[in-house]
Design a protein that fits this description.
The chain has about 180 residues and is mainly alpha-helical. About 40% of the residues lie in helices and about 10% in strands.
């Protein structure tokens, strides 16, 4: 990307699977124009989730050959064995700097846990809540997991709590008719 004046990032391109086949050609032309060799000042980054890169012919070989392989980011589904690390990294990334360790918050809100284990690296989620989400989601796209985490947070907040417990994740599952 060095030497470029503009970086265009197209994220969540897996949503292009929803475009009707008769419209593919229009989108293909747009991406071909954006990736023309004459576009010396623009860097293009394409982001995909899962196996969607090959689901339709919009981002075809003519587009792909014009983009450096390092500028194509494909995020695979999060497997159950990667779930905990993914959640911990996400929580750490979003936590305010002054609360990075989470220990102070665990101590402060321990009374809201209903005897579920509250670990500093997982706050505001109890270990049981994260295990429940892992069981519900299994192998999922990062966006689906993030959505479920957000909904569980909203459920806990609606109950006036700062801690997300397994009963919150059960309520989210019930609302989504997952169980």
């Amino acid at each position: 990307i060095t030497g470029k004046k503009l970086v265009l990032i197209f994220d969540e391109l897996d949503n292009m699977n929803q475009i009707p086949e008769k419209s593919w050609i229009q989108f293909t032309h747009i991406f071909q124009q954006l990736t023309e060799d004459s576009q010396a000042y623009a860097a293009i980054v394409l982001c995909f989730t899962g196996e969607s890169r090959t689901d339709n012919d919009i981002i075809n070989k003519h587009v792909i050959r014009r983009i450096l392989e390092t500028n194509i980011i494909q995020i695979d589904e999060i497997k159950p064995q990667e779930f905990s690390e993914f959640c911990e990294d996400l929580i750490k990334f979003n936590r305010e700097e002054e609360y990075k360790s989470g220990e102070e918050l665990c101590t402060k809100y321990q009374s809201e846990t209903a005897n579920e284990e509250l670990l500093p690296n997982c706050y505001p989620f109890t270990a049981k809540a994260l295990e429940s989400i892992k069981a519900i989601k299994g192998k999922s796209k990062p966006g689906d997991i993030i959505n479920t985490l957000n909904q569980a947070c909203a459920e806990a907040k609606s109950q006036g709590r700062h801690v997300v417990r397994s009963d919150d994740t059960a309520a989210v599952a019930q609302a989504k008719k997952i169980l």
